[in-house]
Design a protein that fits this description.
The chain is mainly α. It contains 12 helices and 4 strands; from the N terminus they run H-E-H-H-E-H-H-H-E-H-E-H-H-H-H-H. The strands form 2 sheets. It has a two-stranded parallel ribbon. The radius of gyration is 17 Å and the shape is globular.
């Protein structure tokens, strides 16, 4: 994602007073993919840059640091945390859910940002609230954080390259969420051209 695109998502989350926490496993997965898949190179760089600018925090976790998190990790994966890195499928999404569930158990209000359908089902299955990047971008549009239609289209295209779960930009639901402000983004007829 472009740095500005990352800032759009983080700006929305911070506009609603959200702290953004990324599990170390997710950051590691993005970093690993960045060595093999070109679009992830920018995503990894932007994630590290956002952490350096204190726009988000990377949640590190060692076995034994947090018994509640260890329990959630074992519950979700079906084997101990020490074995997760070597055996886990869908590591990023599952660790995001484990961290969210542990934070909730510690009394925090948690909303998981997840686009992948499997990740959304897992989040829902454990009673956690979730939103998609589309929802965050829709909020960005309502807050006026994206200046024009071309920028919004670019942001969405960039994010959807990294996400398995976002519909195509010409989907009517996407159109209605991203371009609801006709003064800023043009009319329905303008959107289709």
């Amino acid at each position: 994602m472009g740095t500005g695109h990352t800032d759009v998502l983080l700006g929305v989350l911070q506009a609603v007073s959200a702290s953004v926490l990324v599990p170390q496993d997710v950051a590691d997965e993005v970093g690993y993919k960045s060595t093999e898949i070109l679009p992830y190179t920018r995503a990894a760089s932007n994630l590290q840059g956002a952490a350096r600018r204190n726009r988000l925090a990377i949640a590190t976790h060692q076995v034994g640091d947090d018994e509640v998190l260890d329990r959630w990790v074992s519950k979700l994966f079906g084997f101990p945390r020490a074995e997760v890195a070597h055996r886990a499928k869908d590591l990023g999404e599952t660790m995001a859910v484990a961290h969210a569930a542990a934070l909730r158990e510690h009394g925090e209000r948690v909303v998981v940002v997840v686009d992948d359908g499997g990740g959304q089902r897992l989040t829902n299955q454990h009673g956690l609230d979730f939103i998609s990047s589309l929802t965050v971008l829709g909020k960005a549009a309502l807050l006026g954080l994206v200046p024009d239609r071309a920028t919004m289209t670019s942001v969405y295209a960039d994010i959807s390259r990294h996400s398995k779960g976002l519909p195509a930009i010409d989907d009517p639901i996407v159109q209605s969420r991203l371009f609801a402000d006709t003064v800023l983004y043009g009319s329905q007829a303008d959107r289709l051209t």
